[in-house]
Specification:
With 269 residues, the protein is α/β, with parallel strands linked by helices. The protein has 2 domains: 5-135, Tetrapyrrole methylase, N-terminal domain (Cobalt-precorrin-4 Transmethylase, domain 1); 138-254, Methyltransferase, Cobalt-precorrin-4 Transmethylase, Domain 2, CATH 3.30.950. The chain is 26% helix and 21% strand. It is built from 8 helices and 12 strands. The protein has helices at 38-45, 84-98, 115-122, 137-144, 173-178, 193-202, 231-238, 261-267, and strands at 22-27, 49-52, 69-72, 75-76, 79-80, 100-105, 128-132, 158-162, 183-187, 209-214, 222-227, 244-248. A 5-stranded parallel sheet has the order 3-2-6-1-7, sandwiched between helices. A hairpin with a 2-residue loop joins strand 4 and strand 5. Bound molecules: S-adenosylmethionine. S-adenosylmethionine (SAM) is lined by residues 30-31, 55, 105-108, 111-113, 136-138, 141, 187-188, 213-218, 242-245.
Length: 269
């Protein structure tokens, strides 16, 4: 792909940088490099400093200017490069020193992305603050596997829940959701799969369909399908691990067959 954002006539371009320093919190999409918005590309292009997370596709950094300062602030091999407080401070100091800081985050920055927390932190320091929404893994990853999160006559709503709260516990919302007929999408839930299976089993939902998708929308994508009672075995067999999302509900059985993006790419080689 060779899109130059300056050639695209955006109705709402990134405004000129004032003297105060700026933070733009940008959603990088779920992994496929093409699932980025034009506005996000514009923001990346105009950044003086980019603080980026582990889940972003680093290919996106090619849109940055040659003079940009790139700082990885994510988690690798279970270790955080920076604590959240250090990231917050870095945003402020870099914005004051260099101008425009882009905080590049996986998916959408306001869906379990701490985007709002970072904006809250920098506001008292007088920075201009903008957000560029991104395509969240919670919707894009199921879609790439042909799973519609809602379907007429099958599912009237979907919940997106965290498997791991601030206190490292499974969200209590999972138990409430398990009583409903909604489609349930759980992020950061792999470490709590046994609890999730137990909660749904207690609601007599052993036969409910479930899908687990790891590294969705990327060429490393791995999937496992089953029911509440079989999924643990599927996960062990396929060695599914983070980053993955869990989708529970009848819509999993409504999966439509799509031509794999990667299959098509390979055929064209
Ligand atoms: C801290 S949350 C961030 C979510 C992100 N803000 C979003 O909107 O997608 C990280 C979790 O999102 C899910 N996730 C993000 N990207 C994913 C991907 N490409 N495939 C599967 N799960 C993904 C995983 O559950 C992962 O542990």
């Amino acid at each position: 792909m060779n899109i130059k954002a300056e050639n695209i006539n955006l109705e709402h371009p990134i405004p000129p940088l004032g003297a105060r320093g700026r933070l733009t919190v940008v959603g990088a999409g779920p992994g496929d490099v093409d699932l980025i918005t034009l506005k996000a590309i514009k923001a990346i292009e105009s950044a003086d400093v980019i603080l980026y997370d582990a889940l972003i596709n680093e290919e996106l950094l090619k849109y940055a200017s040659q003079d940009v300062e790139l700082i990885f602030v994510g988690k690798r091999k279970g270790c955080y490069a920076f604590q959240q407080e250090q990231i917050n401070e870095l945003i402020v100091s870099k914005a004051k020193e260099k101008g425009h800081v882009v905080r590049l985050k996986g998916g959408d920055p306001f869906i379990f992305g701490r985007g709002a927390e970072e904006i809250d932190y920098v506001k008292p320091f007088g920075l201009e603050t903008f957000v560029v929404p991104g395509i969240s893994s919670s919707v894009a990853v199921p879609a790439y596997q042909g799973i519609p999160l809602t379907k007429r006559g099958v599912s009237e709503s979907f919940w997106v829940i965290t498997g791991t709260t601030k206190a490292h516990k499974l969200s209590e919302d999972v138990a409430i959701a398990a009583k409903s007929t909604a489609t349930i999408v759980i992020l950061m839930g792999m470490g709590k799969l046994d609890d999730i299976v137990r909660i749904f089993s207690e609601e007599n939902k052993q036969d409910t369909a479930i899908a687990i998708i790891q590294d969705g929308t990327t060429e490393n994508e791995k999937v496992g399908f089953g029911t509440i009672s079989t999924i643990s075995k599927v996960v062990a067999e396929k060695q599914l691990a983070n980053p993955a999302i869990i989708i529970i509900g009848d819509v999993v059985k409504e999966r439509v067959k799509l031509t794999s993006v990667f299959e098509e790419v390979n055929q064209n080689l």
